[in-house]
Design a protein that fits this description.
Strand order of the largest sheet: 1-2-3-4-5
Largest sheet: 5 strands, mixed
Distance between the termini: 29 Å
Shape: globular
Low-confidence stretches: none
Radius of gyration: 15 Å
Length: 95
Amino acid sequence: MAARLDANTAALWPGERSVMVTELDDYGPDLREIHVWLGGGDLGELLTFQRERAEDQARGWGCHRATITGRAGWVRALKGHGYRVQSVTLVKDLV
């Protein structure tokens, strides 16, 4: 992560009680997204201040959407069948 921050391919978003790390992904001229790939600390701060700050900046950078990858938690319907959640990506259109 330090190498990506040093190379400006990732951005660090420190808060008072939380932190996020994002990256920008371009998928051609019609789709640019900000992707949150690390986050931790106070959940309330992440869901309000940190999220809003990153989304506002992403719009300024011309991003069309925001994505978040993380662990999903319990998935009761498939637990008994040997399935486990590895990661979940959440998407929000910004324009």
